[in-house]
What we know:
Elements: E1 3-5, E2 24-26, E3 31-33, H1 49-53, E4 60-62, H2 70-80
Antiparallel strand pairs: 1-4, 2-3
Pfam family, one: Fer4
Domain 4Fe-4S ferredoxin-type: 1-29
Protein name: 4Fe-4S dicluster domain-containing protein
Amino acid sequence: MALLINDKCINCDMCDPECPNEAITMGEEFYEIDPARCTECIGHYDKPTCQSVCPISKCIIIDPDNVETEDELLEKFVSLQGLA
């Protein structure tokens, strides 16, 4: 599952530099996560770093439109890292 930054985002800039996949960018109103690049930090960390550093509760959530299994996220990690 990719993650999603909702409209609770205050654009604090905490999440963007923490993303190891460079999936987070500034959108028109607030930060956004590219589901094609988000692996929920699988392959990098034990849990998503963006959620860990976000000061707003429930601002970064599972994206219901981009549900993926852990195996699919790991495959995406391998592909993004050029390991395949």
